[in-house]
Specification:
It contains 14 helices and 16 strands. The protein is α+β, with helices and mostly antiparallel strands. The strands form three sheets. The protein has a six-stranded antiparallel β-sheet, sandwiched between helices.
C-alpha cells in the first residue's frame, strides 16, 4: 500500500488511518469468531497484498504473501463475493497459527466496497469446527462495515494525495521556470517529471523526420538514449505526438521504445504525453515505472498539466534566445548588426592600443542593388544580401566578425590581421562570389565593391572610415570604367 494510505492523517483521526481501520476490523472478526489468528489482504494488480495480520506463523505469512487473487480460500471469497469456509484442504506448513498446529478451518469474507472488491479478511481456527449462521452473518456484516470504513479512509487519503500532488505540481512548475536561463532546463524538466509522478526514469522525445528519438534522458543510460528510436506512424508514442494526447504503454509491447533496453534500464509501465507548443509540437515527454502500476485518469491529467508547464518554459527559453539573437544579429541576413560591430570595433581598438598589433577591415557594398529591386522586386535584393552574408562567413576566419552595416553595406572586422592577411581574405571573397555566380540560374548576379584598410596604434581611430572611403573610390572607378 502507499505510504500515505498507511500513515495517520494530519489530524490523528484513526478513522482516516487505513492501517488502524484494518487492524480494528480484523480484531472484531477474530473476536467474534473466537479464532486464533487471521489476516487481511487487499487487491493490488491482480494479486493479494498482505495488509495486516495477527497470530499467524512466519511459514503461513510466507505462503500467503503475494497470493494471486484467484487462488485459495481468499480467491474463492473474492470470486463468489461471499463468505467461504474451507477445512482440511491445505498443507500443515501453509496454514499453522503457531508452529506445529494442524490445518484447522479457514473462513474468508470479501471486503466488498462501493465500486469494487477491496480485499479479503481471513480467520484461521486451529481445530475443526462448524460456523453457525449467526457467526457467518456476523462476519459478513463486519466485513461490509470494514469495507465501507476502508473505502472512506482510502478516499480521504486519495484526496490528501491529490492535494499533495497539486502542491508538488506547483513546485515543479516553479523549479523549471527558474531554470529557463540555465543550461540544464531539459534535465530539470525530466527530474521534476519523475519526482511528480513517482517514476524512476524519464525521457524528452524529439521529432526527427518520421521518428521519435530521445533528446535527453533522466535515469536511463546513454546507451539506451542512443537506442531509443520509435516511428511516428504505428507506435503508441507516435500516436501521442500526432494526436496531441496521452498514452500508457505496458512493457513487452513490441517496438514500444525501439530495441530492448539494457537490464538496468528495465521498466514495466510507460506514461507519455505530447509537448504542444504554440509553434507546433516539440515531441513528447515520458516517464517510466519500474514496477507494475495502474495509471488512472487523474494521473494522466496531472502529467498533461505538467507537460503544459514544461512546454511554456521551453517556449520562453526559445523566445529569450531569439531576443538575445535579435539584439546582436541582423534580422534578414543573420550576421551581426551595426550595434554589435561598433562594440566589437571599440573593444578591438582598445586591445590594439594596449598590446600593439594590427587590425584590418573590409568594407563592402552590393553593386546594382537598386536595379535588382526595381527590375525583379525587393525579394531579389534580399536574396543578394543573404547570399553575400553567407559567402562572407564562408570566406572569413572564425575570429573575424561579419556584420551588416546598413542597407546594402557589409563590414568584415579582422582582429590581428595585417595588410597581407586582409588582402588574402579579400581575394578569397572575390573567388567565392565568382564561383557562386557561376552556379546560380537567376537573371541577376551578385557584384560588390570593396574597400580594404589595415591599421594599428594611433591610426586605428580612422580604420572604418578609411575602408569606407576606399570602397566608394573603387565603386566610382568601376562606374567610370563601365560608363
Amino acid at each position: 500500500m502507499d505510504a500515505a494510505a498507511t500513515s495517520g492523517s494530519a489530524t490523528g483521526d484513526s478513522a482516516f488511518d487505513v492501517t488502524s481501520v484494518l487492524e480494528s476490523g480484523l480484531h472484531d472478526v477474530l473476536t467474534g469468531l473466537g479464532a486464533e489468528g487471521g489476516w487481511i489482504s487487499l487487491v493490488r494488480d491482480d494479486a493479494l497484498e498482505l495488509a495486516c495480520h495477527r497470530g499467524i506463523s512466519a511459514e503461513c505469512l510466507a505462503s500467503i504473501a503475494g497470493t494471486p487473487s484467484d487462488r485459495g480460500p481468499a480467491g474463492l471469497a473474492l470470486t463468489s463475493r461471499d463468505v467461504v469456509v474451507v477445512a482440511d484442504t491445505m498443507e500443515p506448513s501453509a496454514l499453522p497459527v503457531r508452529a506445529g498446529d494442524g490445518p484447522g478451518v479457514v473462513l474468508a469474507a470479501p471486503l466488498d466496497g462501493e465500486a469494487r472488491v477491496l480485499g479479503v479478511v481471513v480467520a484461521v481456527c486451529r481445530q475443526a469446527r462448524v460456523f453457525s449462521q449467526a457467526e457467518t452473518d456476523l462476519v459478513r456484516a463486519t466485513a461490509s462495515k470494514l469495507a465501507a470504513a476502508v473505502d472512506h479512509a482510502l478516499l480521504f487519503h486519495e484526496q490528501l494525495k491529490y492535494i499533495e500532488r497539486q502542491h508538488r505540481l506547483l513546485e515543479a512548475a516553479e523549479t523549471i521556470s527558474r531554470s529557463i536561463d540555465s543550461g540544464g532546463l531539459e534535465t530539470t524538466i525530466l527530474a521534476e517529471a519523475a519526482r511528480l509522478m513517482d517514476a524512476q526514469k524519464s525521457a524528452l522525445l524529439a521529432v526527427r523526420g518520421d521518428v521519435l528519438v530521445a533528446a535527453e534522458v533522466f535515469g536511463l543510460s546513454e546507451r539506451s538514449k542512443e537506442l531509443f528510436v520509435v516511428p511516428l506512424e504505428g507506435s503508441p508514442l507516435g500516436q501521442a505526438v500526432l494526436s496531441g494526447g496521452t498514452v500508457v504503454v505496458e512493457n513487452g509491447r513490441p517496438g514500444a521504445v525501439g530495441p530492448d533496453l539494457r537490464s538496468d534500464d528495465a521498466w514495466q509501465v510507460l506514461l507519455a504525453t505530447s509537448l504542444q507548443s504554440y509553434r507546433g509540437t516539440y515531441g513528447a515527454i515520458c516517464v517510466f515505472f519500474e514496477r507494475p502500476r495502474e495509471v488512472r485518469e487523474q494521473d494522466k491529467t496531472l502529467f498533461r498539466t505538467f507537460a503544459a508547464h514544461a512546454t511554456i518554459s521551453l517556449d520562453n527559453r526559445r523566445l529569450m534566445q531569439e531576443k538575445d539573437q535579435m539584439a546582436v544579429h541582423d534580422g534578414l541576413t543573420g550576421v551581426y548588426n551595426r550595434s554589435y560591430l561598433e562594440l566589437a570595433l571599440a573593444r578591438t581598438s582598445k586591445e590594439v592600443r594596449r598590446n600593439g598589433g594590427t587590425v584590418s577591415v573590409l568594407f563592402l557594398d552590393v553593386d546594382g542593388m537598386k536595379e535588382a529591386n526595381d527590375t525583379y522586386g525587393h525579394p531579389a535584393g534580399d536574396t543578394l544580401l543573404c547570399d553575400l552574408a553567407g559567402l562572407l562567413e564562408e570566406s572569413c576566419r572564425e575570429t573575424d566578425i561579419v556584420a551588416r552595416y546598413g542597407g546594402d553595406e557589409f563590414v568584415v572586422l579582422m582582429p590581428g590581421a595585417d595588410e597581407e592577411g586582409a588582402r588574402r581574405v579579400a581575394a578569397k571573397i572575390e573567388t567565392v562570389i565568382a564561383r557562386h555566380n557561376a552556379t546560380v540560374t537567376r537573371p541577376w548576379r551578385l557584384a560588390v565593391s570593396m574597400g580594404r584598410h589595415s591599421a594599428g596604434g594611433l591610426d586605428i581611430d580612422g580604420l572604418l572610415q578609411e575602408a569606407d572611403r576606399r570602397m566608394y573610390a573603387t565603386k566610382r572607378q568601376r562606374a567610370r570604367a563601365s560608363g
